[in-house]
Write a structure and sequence with these properties.
The protein is mostly helical. Helix content is 72%, strand content 5%. The protein is built from three helices and two strands; from the N terminus they run ααββα. It has a two-stranded antiparallel ribbon. Strand 1 and strand 2 form a beta hairpin. Helix 2 packs antiparallel against helix 3. The protein is elongated and about 50 Å long. It starts with a helix and ends with a helix. The relative contact order is 0.22.
Length: 74
């Protein structure tokens, strides 16, 4: 997905969103093979996954809307 997003002409937010998804998925995989990052009763690994996932969704949505507004074709 990251490579495909890099080939898209248009806002770089699309690439940023794909990279954030890569980070989010990597954090999920790392949590499967390691202990979670729990400090003061809060699972920081889970927090990091949700922040990167939400950021990815936001970047992709805004990037696609901007691309549509610019009228850029693939």
């Amino acid at each position: 997905m990251v490579i495909a997003a890099g080939l898209v002409r248009g806002p770089r937010l699309i690439v940023a969103g794909a990279l954030l998804f890569l980070i989010s998925d990597s954090l999920i995989a790392a949590r499967l093979f390691r202990e979670t990052l729990v400090f003061d009763g809060l699972d920081w690994g889970g927090v990091a996954v949700w922040i990167t996932y939400f950021g990815a969704q936001l970047c992709l949505a805004v990037g696609i809307v901007r691309r549509k507004q610019e009228g850029v074709t693939a």
